[in-house]
């Protein structure tokens, strides 16, 4: 009996007819519901105990040889068929395409651009490696000005005139030097500060700068623009401008939005006050206008600067700024559904 099965194995192995009908017959003969294997498995109970092991092994071998044969010849036949048309079988399921996702910072940046472009702001950019003039001096921060200490700066060691920009306010200067008023521009970009990295601050982050220069621009225009922005961005319509100091604006203010105190996270992010600072702003200092070739007797304007990570953390309830820079796909994939 066992020898007989071994012979079947050899026969099955030798089978090599490459046409559908012969293959189907082969399949029925060995694997069909009334086929050889069915019979042999039924026979198993009649086999004497001492032969059971070997018997079991050979019928299993026969089964896998027959199955493998059917599979390979079937594939060969299919491939041949496909080769006939350039596209193969068009009804076969396609390869799944894994969609990427935008980085949350890019998403928020694009949202900000959309909101400001609706009210006529264009987008401008400047270099990340800046000179002293554009980052500090033109912004009313001459050498040895104590306010330079507000921003810990990365300098290029061999040339103290070159640095990594500490804020996007440098782009204001470049834009005013190269464009005549009326000016309405926002400048998103990466900035660098020599700060210890923690859950709340990073040595690299993003800001968006806004600049509006025209005749008779007033503080009321600034406030309305910011109010419009916070409504569009956060759906919040209560803001507060807290008097502050920046060398490049006079008067200057810090922008707080009323976030509310509904949830525990609200308590955490607003430190229990309900208010949250999102940036700085003010009326462009006449000295800055002069430094950039704009006559302060003819034109006035406002400027503001906001942190993009801050806004993204608020919107998406992200508790640690380092997440933005770690490129952990498990974090990034969560933004797939946002466009
Ligand atoms: N550059 C400031 C900073 O990085 C933010 C800022 C404040 C920008 C006031 C402005 C402004 O344009 O008017 O801290």
TrEMBL record:
The organism of origin for this protein: Flavobacterium aciduliphilum
Entry-linked CDD domains: PheRS_alpha_core (cd00496)
Top-level taxonomic group: Bacteria
Protein name as catalogued: Phenylalanine--tRNA ligase alpha subunit
Cofactor binding summary note: Binds 2 magnesium ions per tetramer.
Cellular component terms (Gene Ontology): cytoplasm
EC number of the protein: 6.1.1.20
Gene: pheS
GO biological process, one term: phenylalanyl-tRNA aminoacylation
Subunit structure: Tetramer of two alpha and two beta subunits.
């Amino acid at each position: 009996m066992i020898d007989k099965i071994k012979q079947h194995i050899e026969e099955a192995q030798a089978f090599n007819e490459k046409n559908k009908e012969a293959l189907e017959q082969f399949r029925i003969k060995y694997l069909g519901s009334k086929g050889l294997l069915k019979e042999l498995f039924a026979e198993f109970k009649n086999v004497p105990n001492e032969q059971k092991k070997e018997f079991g092994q050979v019928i299993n071998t026969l089964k896998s040889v027959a199955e493998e044969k059917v599979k390979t010849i079937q594939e060969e036949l299919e491939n041949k068929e496909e080769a006939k048309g350039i596209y193969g079988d068009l009804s076969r399921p396609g390869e799944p395409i894994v969609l990427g996702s935008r980085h949350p910072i890019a998403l928020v940046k694009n949202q900000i651009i959309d909101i400001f472009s609706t009210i006529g702001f264009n987008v401008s950019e400047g270099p990340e490696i800046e000179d002293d003039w554009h980052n500090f001096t033109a912004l009313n921060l001459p050498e040895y000005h104590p306010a330079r200490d507000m921003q810990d700066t990365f300098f290029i060691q061999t040339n103290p005139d070159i640095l990594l920009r500490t804020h996007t306010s440098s782009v204001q200067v470049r834009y005013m030097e190269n464009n005549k008023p009326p000016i309405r521009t926002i400048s998103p970009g990466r900035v660098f500060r020599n700060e210890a990295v923690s859950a709340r601050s990073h040595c690299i982050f993003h800001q968006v700068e806004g600049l509006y220069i025209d005749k008779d621009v007033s503080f009321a225009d600034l406030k309305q623009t910011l109010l419009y922005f916070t409504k569009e961005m956060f759906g919040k319509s209560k803001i507060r401008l807290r008097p502050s100091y920046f060398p490049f604006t006079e008067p200057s203010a810090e922008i707080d939005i009323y976030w509310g105190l509904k949830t525990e996270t609200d308590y955490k992010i607003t430190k229990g006050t309900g208010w949250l600072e999102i940036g700085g702003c003010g009326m462009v200092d006449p000295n800055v206008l002069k430094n950039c070739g704009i006559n302060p007797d003819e034109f006035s304007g406002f400027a503001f600067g906001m942190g993009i990570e801050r806004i993204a953390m608020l919107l998406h309830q992200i508790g640690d700024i380092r997440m933005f820079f770690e490129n952990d796909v498990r974090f990034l994939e969560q933004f797939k559904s946002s466009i």
